[in-house]
Amino acid sequence: MAHAQDIRIGRSAYSVWLRHSVETIRDSLAKRRVYRQTLSELQSLSGRDLADIGLNRSMIHQVAHAAAYGE
In the chain, which stretches have pLDDT less than 50? Predict the structure, then answer.
């Protein structure tokens, strides 16, 4: 007599957690990249250029944070 068995591998809690963790890390790295690029570009501007766009040096970190994290 033959016996057949259907084995299906479902998503375990670990694999769901792992996938979510990887997505969270990728999202965090992408946001950090935007922050650092924005910060770098704004810091490279002269005081006059910053004034032309309505910023001063003390606002650079705040603007870069808002650009990356939307806050």
Answer: none
